[in-house]
Design a protein that fits this description.
15 strands; binds ribose-5-phosphate; 296 residues; single chain; alpha/beta; 6-stranded parallel β-sheet; 33% helix
């Protein structure tokens, strides 16, 4: 028996995880003080280990503070274990000092979660998985919802090719392709030194006549998907679809992608968006179960 707690920004996904692992969900009390500070309260003690589901989607900074406050409050109640599920881990892309004087933001986020009392962490499709072992000393899992993405597209695609927008996204594309029984490839990008124009090209596979599924971790402005889609269509792809795990999607992103020729954009529910039609709950539940097997 466990208790799942959720911040209000994550209660839908927490309910799905609760159904998958058979535990009830308790919503934390939240309010904002007149001066803008956040307040969080745990309304009841956990039965057995506690699981907190709290995504860090926009407004990231406020949600991060609420997550830390909730962890401190839960930890003070002395549960047998305190597992935190952070479906979207904000600041994950600032994983190194690109310029001197910059912070490694992901390090600050992970270490703070640990200091606030988490004894285990589940994240979903984090931008650079090696950052987890680099900055955490508690056990963790990185849940990858590639089976869920593949199932969504199984009946839709003819002669599919899964395309990663860059080499760094290839492993995710490989995993989705494996579940689909399809080929996969990644784009190679090149910037014209005179005009500054970015050109892209699939590394190995001919896209002609194929349904291309672009798969990435995050869609923010939609620019990466739009470039991949227009490249695939110029090179003769029949249709282009796009899937991502985290639809951070800033204003105008969907229009940009649709106008580049993408037929449909879908994402998982690690954060709410109009295209979050695939649930990451099964992948999160499996990751939690495997974490429990390790530590409980
Ligand atoms: C970058 O490395 C990430 O994996 C995504 O490709 C990127 O965040 C997408 O951003 P945008 O939608 O703004 O092109």
């Amino acid at each position: 028996m466990m208790t799942i707690y959720a911040l209000s920004n994550s209660n839908g996904l927490a309910a799905r995880v609760g159904r998958a692992i058979g535990d009830k969900v308790v919503l934390l009390e939240e309010k904002e003080f007149p001066d803008g500070e956040s307040y969080v309260r745990v309304p009841q003690r956990s039965e057995g280990p506690a699981i907190l589901v709290a995504s860090l989607h926009p407004p990231q900074d406020r949600n991060f503070v609420k997550l830390l406050l909730a962890l401190e409050a839960l930890s003070a109640m002395g549960p047998e274990g305190l597992f935190v599920v952070v479906p979207y881990l904000a600041y994950a892309r600032q994983d190194k000092r690109f310029l001197e004087g910059e912070p490694i933001s992901i390090k600050v986020v992970l270490k703070s979660i640990e200091v606030a009392g988490a004894t285990g962490l589940v994240v979903v499709d984090v931008h650079k998985p090696s950052a987890l072992s680099e900055h955490l000393s508690i056990p963790f899992r990185n849940a990858i919802p590639s089976r869920e993405v593949a199932e969504y597209f199984k009946e839709k695609l003819k002669n599919p090719l899964v395309l990663a927008p860059d080499a760094g996204a290839l492993e995710r594309a490989r995993s989705v392709a494996e579940h689909l029984g399809a080929d996969y490839d990644h784009l190679v990008k090149e910037r014209d030194r005179v005009t500054g124009e970015v050109r892209a090209q699939p590394k190995n596979v001919d896209v002609r006549g194929r349904d291309v599924l672009i798969v990435d971790d995050i869609i923010s402005t939609g620019g990466t998907v739009a470039l991949a889609a227009s490249t695939a269509l110029k090179q003769g792809a029949s249709r282009v679809f796009a899937a991502c795990t985290h639809a951070v999607m800033v204003k105008g992103a969907l229009d940009l992608m649709l106008s580049s020729g993408v037929e449909e954009v879908v994402a998982t529910d690690t954060l709410p968006s109009p295209v979050s039609r695939i649930t990451a709950a099964p992948a999160i539940s499996e990751a939690l179960k495997s974490l429990f097997d390790e530590v409980l």
